[in-house]
Each structure stands twice: as structure tokens, then as C-alpha cells.
Amino acid sequence: MNYKLDPSLSLPYPTQLKNHFKAAILNGEFKDKAILPDYEFLNKTYGFTEDMVRKAYNELIREGYAKRIKKTGVFVHHTFVVDHMIEKMTPILEEIHNQGYKATLSDLLIEVVKSDEELNSRFGFKESQDLLHLIRLFKADGIAVLWMDAYYPSFYLKQIELESLKGMSIYPLIKQASGCIPTSVDKNLSAINLNQKQSEILDLRKGSAGGMITGSTRDQNNNVIEVFSDIIPADRLRFIIK
Question: What's the confidence (pLDDT) of residue 85?
């Protein structure tokens, strides 16, 4: 990790140091629950003052990237980071575009499948049903920032051709075809380390830090119209959230 501070910047030294730690947490250099360097090490190695280190860590804690355990030290709190930051998400393509990046999506899979026991349970089906299975990859300036894996009951989409779904937002199509409007989302947020398949699709090394969002979307009648699993590389959260 580079702890070099730049005197030419208008940012105070504690904030610069905090930003170095934040970047290291998001790119996976510091894993969840890892203890951050203490004042003695930073003072002896880099000459940082105790006041500078304390202020940097206080900023890091205040922003939700770390927590302090009395008489033990300051630890990465990455699970909270994912929870805290994902809550601020707006529609992905819009958010990417609003930050000045070129927003694109690729449809990796569009197919109709039969629901298994797990999906029947999540949708509340008594028996197997046809589902639209959609896997998409969102990019910002050509860099993969989110992998979406979602299922939708086919009867909500009725006679819509699969080919016509490419690049399209699904909710308006569901509303047009069946009158169902998404009104609420239940989701679980967790920090993960990417497995081989996830890392290959997102063009990262295996074991890189990421966030996983799993959940479901309900319509105005409280019916589940979508179940999903989204994966976001930790070092690319900046592309989709402010």
C-alpha cells in the first residue's frame, strides 16, 4: 500500500491518509476484519503524527469502513461497507451515466427454464413454473462493475419474444404485459470473496473482495415478480454509487 501524502493537494493530510486506507479496503488489500496498522508502525515507518493517524481513522470509522475495538485496534468492517454503500444505489445504468462514464450492459443469458424447489419456495409456487432466466453484465467505460442473475415468472411477460428482451429494462415490460408494478424489494447484503467463475466474468483475480445482494421484488399485490443475485467487485463500487 502507498502511504505517500501529497503536499500540493488541498486535502488535509488526515483525509489523504484516510483515502489511502479506503482505496486499500475497496480493492481487497485489507480483508474484512483485518486489523489496520497502528500509530507506532505508521510513525516509525512514515513519520505520521499520532494526531494525523487518529483523525484519519476517525474519518474512516465515521464513513463506515472500519470500527474501533477498545484496547485492540481499528479493524476493517467490510460487511458494513457493502450494506452502507449499496443502500445508496440508484438504477445502475443511470448511476453510471450520471457519474460521467459510458454505461453499457451485455446480456450473457436469456432463456426460459423450469423452476426448481428452491425457486418455487422463493416465488411461492406450489408446483414448477416457467421462468425467464436473465444474466447481465453492466460496464462503466468498458470495465465490468456488476453481474446480475435474475429470474422472472414467464406468465408476467406473456407472449413477449426472448429476442426482444435484449438490452431492455424488464419492469416496464412486465407492467405493459400484465399490469404488475414493482413496489418493494427485500434484499440481503453480504461481503464475499469472488470464486473462480465470478472472477472470470468480472475480470478479477480469484478471491478478490466483492459484495453480493440477494433478494426479491414484489408487485402491488405482494406477489414476487423477481428473485435476483447481484455481485459487485469491491474496488468498483465507485462506478455505481456516489
Answer: 47
